Amino acid sequence: MSLTDVIEGTRRAVDADPHNAAVSFSVGHTLKPGTRTEVEVKVRDHAFTVDEPPALGGTDQAANPVELALAALGSCQVITYQFWAAKRGIPLDSIKVTVDGDLDLHGFFGFSFNTRPGFGDVRVSVELDGPASRERYEDLKREVDEHCPVLDLFRNETPVSTKLT
């Protein structure tokens, strides 16, 4: 099934019932020895490991949470570029995305209460290759920046509630 088929099929389903546009995701996490965390994607049959490097108390068996956050952003960018290129009929031969982020550990460790624990700066570099004009790729970038769900998480405050049970 092509991406344009997916887009049109989704449009028809949402036009028929707007509730079809609402989706939920659920992921469970279990701490293992050290900082290793086993992650289970609840609805779909996927699992993966998260860990920290030894300098942060881990065993370096997997990427850490902030690396995965950058990976989520870069992956979402690649996917969103594919979807919007298909939707707009813009030919793409390849998409390469690099995401870099700077984090100051003063905030995470509580060494300074004036430093946020999250990223202070995130930079996304996108390399598109294909026969379309630079202007069309710039238009595509604007569409992707408007519609990428993970970029939206990075750019905007999202309500989060935490319940201790």
Automatic annotation (TrEMBL):
<dbReference type="InterPro" id="IPR003718">
    <property type="entry name" value="OsmC/Ohr_fam"/>
</dbReference>
<dbReference type="GO" id="GO:0004601">
    <property type="term" value="F:peroxidase activity"/>
</dbReference>
<keyword id="KW-0560">Oxidoreductase</keyword>
<dbReference type="InterPro" id="IPR015946">
    <property type="entry name" value="KH_dom-like_a/b"/>
</dbReference>
<dbReference type="Pfam" id="PF02566">
    <property type="entry name" value="OsmC"/>
</dbReference>
<dbReference type="InterPro" id="IPR052924">
    <property type="entry name" value="OsmC/Ohr_hydroprdx_reductase"/>
</dbReference>
<dbReference type="InterPro" id="IPR036102">
    <property type="entry name" value="OsmC/Ohrsf"/>
</dbReference>
<protein>
    <submittedName>
        <fullName>OsmC family protein</fullName>
        <ecNumber>1.11.1.-</ecNumber>
    </submittedName>
</protein>
<keyword id="KW-0575">Peroxidase</keyword>
